[in-house]
Amino acid sequence: MRKSGPPKGLISYLVLELLDEKPRYGYEILKEIREISGGHWEPSYGSVYPILYKFEDKGWTERIEREDESDRKYFKLTDEGRDELDEKRKESGTKAREFADVILGFYHVYVSFATDDRFEVESPEGEWQFDETFSSWIVEQIIRHHERDFGDFERIPDTPEEFYERMGLED
């Protein structure tokens, strides 16, 4: 079980996927990742550009010049980069549990801040709060995204143990 932060290699994988669509420059990649995350997350220039330069050093990307935009550094995926992307796609297919652990872990901490007497978190008036109303809103957003992308939401009454067993997963 992953204990903190987003799953390792997520930004690198997203950068490869986005470059597979078309050549891009750093800021464009930042905007795309922000859109993919529903506006909730945007990596910094300090994380994307080093990845682009590392990919260039490894031969996975190459910089291209555009006459109409000479001030921007565009990168395109090479054949070696596509081979790496194929590997990352296989690797990323095994990360669903890590993603779920991160999402559920952060949510559990959020609820603990609202309900556990060990935490005396004080949120200023007019800011996000650690309380039932804001927790309900978060869950509602997840359900709305589920329904938009997968259709009707049906509650699953299983305990975690029952779900793992039913799905043939190890706890």
Helices and strands in order, then pairings?
Elements: H1 10-21, E1 24-25, H2 26-36, H3 45-58, E2 61-64, E3 74-77, H4 79-92, H5 96-115, H6 132-150, H7 160-167
Gross CATH architecture of the largest domain: Orthogonal Bundle
Mean pLDDT: 90
CATH class of the largest domain: Mainly Alpha
Q: Figure out the total of helices.
A: 7
The main pleated sheet reads as:
3 strands, antiparallel
Give the beta-strand count: 3
Range of helix content = 55-70%
- Strand content bin: 5-15%
CATH topology of the largest domain: Arc Repressor Mutant, subunit A
How many distinct domains?
Answer: 2
Fourth-tier CATH superfamily name of the largest domain: Winged helix-like DNA-binding domain superfamily/Winged helix DNA-binding domain
The value of Rg in angstroms is 20 Å
Gap between N and C termini: 10 Å
**Global outline:** globular
- Which consecutive residue ranges, at least 5 long each, have pLDDT under 50? 1-5
Which sequence of SSEs, written as H and E, runs from N to C? HEHHEEHHHH
Q: Major sheet: order of its strands?
A: 1-3-2
Secondary structural class: mainly alpha
